[in-house]
Amino acid sequence: MVHKPAWFKDDQIFVSFAETVGINKDGLDLFVIDPITGARTSTIDDRVSADVDALLEGELGPTSRWVPTREFPVAVPAYYDDRHTAALDDLLAEPAFTTFTSRSLGELIRDGSIERRAGHGSPSADMRNSNVPYIKVSDIRAGQININPSNLVPEVVAKRFWRGGDSGIRPFDLITPIRSSKNIGEFAVIMPGQERIVLTKEVLILRATADAIADNFYLLWALSLKVVRDQWRRVVFMQTNREDVGERFLEIRIPWPHEEKIGTRVSADFREYYQGVEALRSRFVGSLERGGLHHVFLGQALDSPDE
């Protein structure tokens, strides 16, 4: 006969998703830091104990919950931190958001409002010596793609990874790392002129479809909201010491507008910024071309020394 504690429940699992258990990464005591002085105090920073004490009292702690056994697919406590999803619900309850509903990326992909695709692959280092940019997760920073001139592959190699004559990427597509990066869930915009690139497989590309009532700029606005960004902390796990989100990104929920004009209005600044940047770039490059490029170096690979 196995003893069952008074708090035990046959069909539920108690999960604590507290951030600390009183031990630092070196296996030593982890102390609370005084927020004013920045110095260590003598208090052990063990937040799990607060959840355990609450459990023994028949209550829920500040960072714990009961999860039905049938809804327990992975043994990762952070996955059950419902504070991140509750924050979006709280936002949508505000008067300014009554014209939005909560939709997951998975739902929007299934109903044809959003398209998803993965990256192309990873050319070996000895192939990176030509003119088609190869983009790694480290090149996706601060909302943009940064082309590294030391990672340029021949077009024949690019087409092999594209499995065709073009990359399948379109202007203003959204891209984020999905593995091996601290920036998982931080989206960048693929600008016009950057479509002919080879993308590492460890990325996710999203775009709004022609049938959707929102466009890519709305998607970027929604995905940039703090209540949405924080949700990635729940679904990104460590996999052999590398961050990985897998298919769990489909669970990320965003506000979705009831009407197209609503989405267009709230995302106007994003649309104006990225379209404005492209207009300035086109005007700048056009001016240089008219004046002669031989006096200016833009950090772009050239096909031959004579160009």
Descriptive account of the structure:
By secondary structure, this protein is α+β, with helices and mostly antiparallel strands. The protein folds into 2 domains: 12-80, no CATH class; 83-270, DNA methylase specificity domains (Adenine-n6-DNA-methyltransferase TaqI, Chain A, domain 2), CATH 3.90.220.20. It is built from 9 helices and 17 strands. It has helices spanning 48-56, 83-92, 105-110, 155-162, 216-224, 226-229, 232-235, 260-266, 268-291, and strands at residues 12-16, 31-33, 40-44, 64-68, 100-104, 114-118, 132-135, 140-141, 144-145, 152-153, 173-177, 188-190, 198-199, 203-208, 237-239, 242-244, 253-257. A 4-stranded antiparallel sheet has the order 6-14-11-12. The chain has a 3-stranded mixed sheet with strand order 10-7-13. Strands 1-4 form a two-stranded antiparallel sheet. A hairpin with a 2-residue loop joins strand 15 and strand 16. The longest helix is centred in the last third of the chain and has 24 residues, at 268-291. It is globular.
What is the strand and helix layout of this fold?
Blueprint lengths: L11 E5 L14 E3 L6 E5 L3 H9 L7 E5 L14 H10 L7 E5 H6 L3 E5 L13 E4 L4 E2 L2 E2 L6 E2 L1 H8 L10 E5 L10 E3 L7 E2 L3 E6 L7 H9 L1 H4 L2 H4 L1 E3 L2 E3 L8 E5 L2 H7 L1 H24 L16
Order of helices and strands: EEEHEHEHEEEEEHEEEEHHHEEEHH
Largest sheet: 4 strands, antiparallel
Structural class comes to alpha+beta
Any guess at the CATH architecture of the largest domain?
Answer: Alpha-Beta Complex
CATH class of the largest domain: Alpha Beta
Given the C-alpha coordinates, what overall shape results? globular
Taking all Cα atoms into account, the compactness measure Rg is 24 Å
CATH fold call of the largest domain: Adenine-n6-DNA-methyltransferase TaqI, Chain A, domain 2
Q: Please indicate the count of domains.
A: 2
- Count helical runs: 9
Q: Report helical residue fraction.
A: 25-40%
Alpha-carbon distance between the termini?
83 Å
- Total strand count, please? 17
Order of strands, widest sheet: 6-14-11-12
CATH superfamily of the largest domain: DNA methylase specificity domains
Q: What are the low-pLDDT stretches, counting only 5+ consecutive residues below 50?
A: 299-307
Mean pLDDT, to the nearest integer, reads 90
Strand content: 15-25%
